[in-house]
Amino acid sequence: MLTISLVTTEPIQQRAKETVARILSATEQILIRDGLNALNTNAIASAAGLTPPSVYRYFVNKEAIIEELAARYYAAEESWTMQIEILAHGTDALSSLVGRIVEHYVESALAYPAIAALRTAIRAHPALRSLDQESRRRSARALSNALRARGLKTLAARTKTISAVVVSTICGLIDQIVLLPPTAQRRWIDETKTLVQAYVATLEV
């Protein structure tokens, strides 16, 4: 599991875990409602019904809280990546498989409440950018393995490049559509699926 959390005190007892959950939930709500610029430890403490020292007991600063949210987001993303290999067990065309992967990956990301503000924080935070790059490499490896298992007959190096291109396209799509209204999101997803499917269709034998 990926993690870069700077937790001051690891929550062991149930009450401590509940306090950390309140802190993370309050942070998400501020990110959703007011954006990254409005986030500070005092605001988080107030929204969570805690005192600032109570927050500092578990997190050294607001960046540590954001990092914990990001780590949990990427831990969830690992389960989405595992689905790539499960989806690869079907018998449909490679282009259809990739279309389903795009749909699954994007919808999973959009189900995360604070995804828009969190993605903004990731782009602005060096440590989180590194985590994002690692996540992309892991997803690309999973897709490459799935394509090879489904009989894509290209050199291994090219398959890895193809997979990296597809994953980067999906991640770029997520960064764009989180800023759009739902109706526009659907159009962007459909157009990206068409683009990626057309690309992969040229590789099918």
Keywords:
mainly alpha; 9 helices; 205 residues; disordered N terminus
Explain what you see:
By secondary structure, this protein is mainly alpha-helical. Helices cover 75% and strands 0% of the residues. The chain has nine helices and no strands. The chain has helices at 14-34, 41-48, 52-56, 62-87, 94-110, 115-124, 126-149, 156-177, 182-201. Helix 1 (14-34) crosses helix 2 (41-48), helix 1 packs across helix 4 (62-87) and helix 4 packs parallel to helix 7. The longest helix has 26 residues, at 62-87. The two termini are 36 Å apart. Mean pLDDT is 83; it is low at 1-6.
Would you summarize the structure shown here?
With 205 residues, the chain is mainly α. The chain contains nine helices and no strands.
SSE layout and pairings?
Layout lengths: L13 H21 L6 H8 L3 H5 L5 H26 L6 H17 L4 H10 L1 H24 L6 H22 L4 H20 L4
Helix pairs in contact: 1-2, 1-4, 4-5, 4-7, 5-8, 5-9, 6-7, 7-8, 8-9
Shape: elongated
Strand content: under 5%
Radius of gyration: 19 Å
Instruction: Report how far the terminal alpha carbons are from each other.
Output: 36 Å
How many helices in DSSP terms? 9
Note poorly predicted spans: 1-6
Order of helices and strands: HHHHHHHHH
Mean pLDDT: 83
Helix share bin: over 70%
Query: Could you say which structural class the secondary elements and strand pairing correspond to?
Result: mainly alpha
In total, the number of strands is 0
The biggest beta sheet reads:
none
